[in-house]
UniProtKB/TrEMBL annotation:
It comes from Claviceps pazoutovae. One of its GO terms (molecular function) is DNA binding. Residues 1-24 form the signal peptide. The lineage of its organism: Eukaryota, Fungi, Dikarya, Ascomycota, Pezizomycotina. PANTHER family: ZN(II)2CYS6 TRANSCRIPTION FACTOR (EUROFUNG), ZN(II)2CYS6 TRANSCRIPTION FACTOR (EUROFUNG)-RELATED. One of its GO terms (biological process) is DNA-templated transcription. This is Xylanolytic transcriptional activator regulatory domain-containing protein. Residues 8-107 form the Xylanolytic transcriptional activator regulatory domain.
Length: 210
C-alpha cells in the first residue's frame, strides 16, 4: 500500500482489512475508544461492501479473493455467520474461476505472484475448513489440489514472521509463524478429510440458511 502498487493491494482489500482490525480491537480500560474504533469498523465494512458490489462484474483479481475472504472472517466476528459463509462460498467460486488451484500455469508466473497465489489458496482452505467444522458442512475444497508447502526450517521467508516486543524489554521475539502455519495447514487438512465424510455439501447448507 505504501508503495502505491496495485499488484498485491486494492481499495477493497484495504477497507476489508481495516474493518476486521477495528472489530477485533478491544480495550477494557477505555470503553469509549473501543466504541469509536468499532464505529470506524462499521464505516470500513460499509465501504468494502460497496466496493465488492462494484467488483462483481469485473475480471477476478487475487486481491479480490483475499478481500472477500477477509470480509467472511469479519462477518463471523460480527456474529453474522450465515452471511460470512456466503462470502466464503463466493471466495471459493472466484478462486476456482481464477485458476488458483490450477498447477498447469505455475511455470508462467513469477515467484512473488506464485507465492501470493499459493499462500492465498491455503488461507482460504484453512478458513473454509474452520467454517465447515462450525456448521458441520463440507468445505468444498479438495486438499489434494493445493500446492505443497515449503519446509519452514529452510524457507521461512515464504511464510513471513511476526515479531512481538514486550514493554519490559527492547528485544523482539519471533512467534515461529512459519512452523505454526504449516502445522495448522496439515492439521486442518486432516480435519477436512474427516469432515467430508460426515457433513452435508456447502451448497445445501447455504440454501438452508445456516
Amino acid at each position: 500500500m505504501l508503495s502505491e502498487s496495485m499488484q498485491f493491494c486494492s481499495p477493497l482489500l484495504v477497507n476489508a482489512t481495516l474493518a476486521l482490525s477495528c472489530y477485533c480491537y478491544h480495550d477494557e480500560s477505555d470503553c469509549e475508544k473501543s466504541r469509536q474504533v468499532r464505529a470506524m469498523g462499521y464505516e470500513f465494512l460499509a465501504e468494502a461492501k460497496k466496493l465488492w458490489d462494484l467488483e462483481e462484474d469485473r475480471p477476478i483479481l487475487i486481491t479480490t479473493i483475499q478481500a472477500v475472504l477477509v470480509l467472511s472472517v469479519t462477518l463471523n466476528v460480527c456474529s453474522a455467520e450465515a452471511l460470512g459463509l456466503r462470502y466464503a462460498r463466493a471466495a471459493v467460486a472466484m478462486a476456482v474461476d481464477y485458476g488458483l488451484y490450477d498447477a498447469s500455469d505455475a511455470q508462467c508466473k513469477s515467484e512473488p505472484i506464485q507465492q501470493a497465489h499459493d499462500f492465498t489458496a491455503w488461507c482460504l482452505h484453512n478458513w473454509c475448513i474452520l467454517q465447515g467444522y462450525q456448521f458441520v458442512i463440507s468445505p468444498g475444497i479438495d486438499t489434494h489440489r493445493l500446492p505443497s508447502l515449503p519446509d519452514p526450517e529452510t524457507h521461512a521467508e515464504w511464510y513471513g514472521e511476526f515479531w512481538i516486543q514486550y514493554s519490559s524489554t527492547m528485544t523482539r521475539i519471533g512467534v515461529n509463524h512459519p512452523q505454526f502455519f504449516k502445522a495448522r495447514c496439515e492439521l486442518l487438512s486432516i480435519s477436512n478429510q474427516i469432515g467430508c465424510h460426515f457433513s452435508q455439501p456447502i451448497v445445501n447448507a447455504v440454501a438452508d440458511g445456516v
